[in-house]
Amino acid sequence: MRIGKKVIIVMIIAIINISLLFSNLNVIAVEVVKEPLNTFQNDDIHIQVEVLNNKETALKYTVSNIGEKEIQNLSLKHISEEEKGIHFIKQSFTINGKKLIGDAVDTFYKEEKLADSNMYARNIQGLHIKNKESIEIVIGAKELNKEQSPKVIIEQNGQEVGHLFIQNKVFTEEKVTKDEEKQKSREEDKEKTIKEEKQEIREKEKEQTVKEEKQEIKEEKKEVIEEKQEEKKQDENLVFSNSIPVKPNGGFDKPIYEDRLKGNLVQTGNMTLGLEKDRYTRGSMGRRTDKYIVNVDNDKSTFNSSTGVLPPVPQSGKVKKAYLFWTAAMGAKGYLDGKSITDVQIQQPVKIKSENGSYKDVFPNSIRKELGLPYIGSYFAGYNGDAYVAYADVTNAIEGYNLNKPITVANIPQLSNTNGTGYYWGNWNLIVVYEDPKETVKDMQVWEGLITQRGYDWTHINIKNINTPKEGNFKAKFSYYASNGTPAENDVYGKDYATYDFGKGEVKVKNHLGNAEDANDGSMTEIQIDGTNELVTKKYKGYNPDWTNSFATDIHTYHLEGPNQIANNLKDGKISFKAYNAAGNIYTLNNVTFVAEYDSPNLIVTKKMLNTEVQEINSVKYGQEFLYRIEIKNDVSNPLAKALDVQGYDKLDDYLEYVPNSITHETHNGIENRTDQQKDDQVDVIDGNEIKYRIGKGANAERGGTLDVGAKEAITFKVRVKPGSNITEVKNTAYVSGKDVLNNAIHVSDSVTGHIVVPDIPTGDLRLVSVPDAIAFGELTIPSKPTMYSPSQITGKLVVQDDRPEKNAWKIYVKETEPLTLDGKEQLIGAMRYVKGSQQYMLGETAVEVATSISTNNAPTEVFWNDESNGIRLFVEPSPLIKVGLEYKGKLEWVLADTPM
Asked: Under DSSP, is residue 75 helix (H, G, I), strand (E, B) or coil?
């Protein structure tokens, strides 16, 4: 193989047969071992654990630095099967009395499934403690194993430094004492029961006389108790955070976000409560009216969830800003008592995750509430009820998401009643602004609010502080997100009208079926410039559910062309709603977005590698001449969007050599040669490795010119890769700057990368000839204290052969690919070790160096890696979890490399 490559050898099974044979002597030895219960201490760290048994169980860790140096990267790892051990309530995490919320929780707490096993690690991690200081951590816990003491592995900088067992004092009495207490308790209970039965017989006749009178009161009390229990059950699931004030209706006057950048705005959303499949009308139309709670994620921690898909985002796009909106009806007093949602509940976090990712909690930044909306409880009974809308900045939460993959949102606070006949809903809307140097410059704005349309009169929502270009053609789009709880297909009571006016007169809104009398039909659509109305749930695959118009919400995006459909220099717009008739639809508007191309130049730089025949290439050889071509285009249609003072430069890396007098300049007049001299034309060559150029109409030796709308120019020059350069790829970037008509600076760039083609080298290879077939530890008895065992038998040798012409040093590494496992289930995590003298390393995914050497000839070299001081070892601690008389097996992988790993 070639120099610098790594050789990875197929995994070799290390069979470890551990039979734990108990004798009376061993039992006695185990009983006297003093394992650390609820405490740990070494020279640097002291840890004390308390099990707090108040209303709910919690663990309190007090971690102290008793050494002389700062403690860094300290982790407490709780390892168990998925349904066993300690389960933490991550939303209850506090450090030194401060509650962690949102992304802060993920910094200090992580849950993960261990590779190739059924074990889970629940880790408190990333702890840093200064000298002589302490921190106090409290986290809610459930399913604390009361029969056994959960084990906590303590690691510092990835290395195990010790462990402790968590034990609740309530359950630490000796088993014999427990049995005696249980027996005594049973006898006392029996005696008490007999007494109570006798007392019941004596009072039976007395109670009979008032039984009928009390029955009605009893039933009333039962209902009250059940309601209180339901409220208590809901409250137990609440995550209490720093509450924010609930604001009244209003909004839409000032954008919560506005920016001017190269990029675009996209959005998605879905419902979490609506009408299932074909439940499109009320009972008066002979159809079903019961609601359907959507929960698609198969996650026990969520009570509702749905998935949406953003329109395609370019790979070069990067998230600039993101907002998550969510809304629901809250219920009606008198009709949905005990099933309505409260102001406390609407302040709880929702959850968001990308495909195959983990949920993150999102707390609201703002909540608005509307009171007394008609028909929220029941259409027939006419109960009024409340509704809310909340939003949060989720820019950090979705960082790292693949925006072209489905996104799921869960736990929208909403009504749990599915049998009501009223107008209620639950849904969400994700808005993402992204930057992309290939896009045109746009003004982007987002407004929030809560305004309702309650009847036959028009409700007008004024959208203020809009920005559109002062003159010329441009493209724009706007969207609105609204809710009403009725899809209203073939239902006159659910129909409504809607219009918008952006400086070109009122335009009637039509639904995806072209019906203006049912403008908002509970769907999610994009309306193109020509009026084509597309259902995004069908256009972009991945929505779950992907229903057509049972969303119980409307998210509509209108693409417009200015100045025909939207006015130039527009500052204010208007969206209006009204019901089809006096008894008709209830509607809430939750947000509006607006995007318009700015009358700014859109400079696009494209850099390419060409061969001398002017064909595009992506690889070169040492010493080969090739061309760099830099094209600059003002890619915009607005006649005001001229680019002024356009200039650029390209600095070559040391491994590149400019070929003198090779520059050409392509303009609208054709291709012209340029000299290498400075300040004699539009191109200068500085120090033989930097090319500066000025382009556009009027460009000269001093300043850049004007690049008109749609115009383009190009600079081309020759370079070569210097022979002997120790590189594998050639990368170069072109930078261009300019100004718009308002003197705002513009900076753009583009890079191109080519690969170096290396001539063939003489054949030869570095390889492992053989590795150990098996490593056995034989039959072991359970130790009375932590013990390290050497292998009882090693089958096979470790042999390396290097027949490369040029021999370099090589290294052998070993790592554990499968922990010691019993029948594919029970595992001994951290048992396999590699010992080097006084140092020992826990084997895992990280490779440990075994040997290093250099071959002096082509003959095979045997590596002696296991002796009294070095080699593979088995580390066993006393534990009731180790199974007796059964065989554990694991796998090790040997790696040969001539570069460090």
From this structure: strand
Return the domain boundaries, the chain.
6-17+762-897, 38-171, 176-228, 247-597, 603-743
Identical fold between 6-17+762-897 and 603-743: yes
The alpha helices in 144-174, defined as continuous H runs, are none
Decide: 16 and 874 in contact? Cβ < 8 Å: yes
Q: Which two tokens stand for residue 578?
A: 């009204």
Three-state DSSP class for 750?
A: strand
Name the nearest CA neighbour of 445 among 564, 573, 561.
573
Give the residues of the chain that fall short of pLDDT 70: 1-37, 53-56, 82-84, 102-104, 115-118, 143-149, 168-243, 275-290, 333-338, 377-383, 419-421, 455, 485-494, 549-551, 581-586, 638, 742, 758-763, 901
499 contacts 509 by C-beta, under 8 angstroms: yes
Residue where the block lists tokens 């959005």: 267
Question: Partners of 602 in the beta sheet?
Answer: none
What element of type H or E holds 251? strand 250-251
Q: Is 157 left (phi over 0), alpha (psi -120 to 50) or beta?
A: left
Are the C-beta atoms of 155 and 71 separated by less than 8 Å? Answer: no
- For domain 603-743, the CATH class is mainly beta
Q: Which residue, among 631, 658, 640, has the nearest Cα to 597 in the 3D structure?
A: 640
Identify the residue whose tokens are 């709603």: 577
One-letter amino acid of 867: D
CA distance 277 to 292: 9
Amino acid (one-letter) located at 856:
T
Contact 586, 450 (CB under 8 A): no
Would you say the C-alpha torsion 504, 506, 510, 515 has a positive or negative sign?
Answer: negative
| Cβ-proximal residues to 363 (8 Å cutoff; 6+ apart), any chain | 101, 102, 241, 347, 349, 392
Question: SS3 for 762-791, per residue?
Answer: CCCCEEEEECCCEEECCCCCCCCCCEEECC
pLDDT value of position 440: 82
Task: Count the neighbouring beta carbons within 10 Å of the beta carbon of residue 588.
Answer: 28
C-alpha pair distances (Å), 383 with each of 107, 282, 330: 46, 16, 12
Quick one: tokens of 463?
């959208």
Tokens of 158: 């990835």
Query: Structure tokens of 537?
Result: 């749930």
- Report the residue count for the chain: 901
> What are the Cα distances from residue 614, in Å, to 662, 671, 753?
14, 14, 17
Query: Judging by DSSP bridges, how do beta strands 553-562 and 524-527 pair with one another?
Result: parallel
Q: Which pairs count as long-range contacts for 876-880, CB under 8 Å and 24+ apart, including other chains?
A: 876/18, 876/780, 876/782, 876/783, 876/786, 876/787, 876/789, 876/828, 876/831, 877/783, 877/786, 877/787, 878/30, 878/33, 878/35, 878/782, 878/783, 878/784, 878/785, 878/786, 879/151, 880/148
What pTM was estimated for this model as a whole?
0.53
198 φψ region: left (φ > 0), alpha (ψ -120 to 50), beta (else) = alpha
pLDDT at 456: 74
Strand 366-373, strand 246-247: pairing: parallel
Q: DSSP labels for 832-875?
A: EEEEETTEEEE-SSS-EEEEEE--SSSS-EE----SSSEEEEEE
Amino acid at 808: N
Q: What pLDDT is stored for residue 32 in this prediction? A: 31
Provide the CATH topology of domain 38-171.
Answer: Immunoglobulin-like (2.60.40)
Residue 856 to residue 804: CA distance in whole angstroms: 11
For residue 394 the two structure tokens come to 């989720």
- Quote the CA–CA distance of 644 and 516 in Å, as a whole number: 47
Residues 6+ apart with CB under 8 A from 56: 140, 142, 236
Q: Which of 599, 595, 641 is nearest to 320 (CA)?
A: 595
In CATH, the architecture of 6-17+762-897 is: Sandwich (2.60)
Q: Is the distance from CB of 150 to CB of 79 less than 8 angstroms? A: no
